[in-house]
Amino acid sequence: MSAADSNKIPSEEILTRKWDECISNVIVKSGIGLSVGIVASALVFKKRSWPISVSTGLGLGYALSQCERNFNPTLVPVAKKVQQEKK
């Protein structure tokens, strides 16, 4: 067995790592959005509820877009440009 064969990571492990990163991103970024929304609601918007919803949604959306890029890196415009240059 060569050194290259021993360094290969199984595809299941790669997929598991991507899912773990995606789930942790969703939890962290939604939590940060929720926290920012609560602070903004209490300090700036006279305790209204819409800043909490908006900031949580923005955090969730950002996390999901990062997950999508992680699973499909060809969606990133820079990756498309690099692939075209290699051809």
Structural class: mainly alpha
Strand content: under 5%
Tell me about the biggest sheet? none
From the N-terminal CA to the C-terminal CA, the straight-line distance is: 32 Å
Subunit structure: Component of the mitochondrial contact site and cristae organizing system (MICOS) complex.
Function: Component of the MICOS complex, a large protein complex of the mitochondrial inner membrane that plays crucial roles in the maintenance of crista junctions, inner membrane architecture, and formation of contact sites to the outer membrane.
Protein name: MICOS complex subunit MIC10
Subcellular location: Mitochondrion inner membrane
Write the layout of secondary structure elements.
Blueprint: H1 3-6, H2 11-43, H3 50-71, H4 77-86
Helix pairs in contact: 2-3
Question: How does this structure look, described?
Answer:
By secondary structure, this protein is mainly alpha-helical. The chain has 4 helices and no strands.
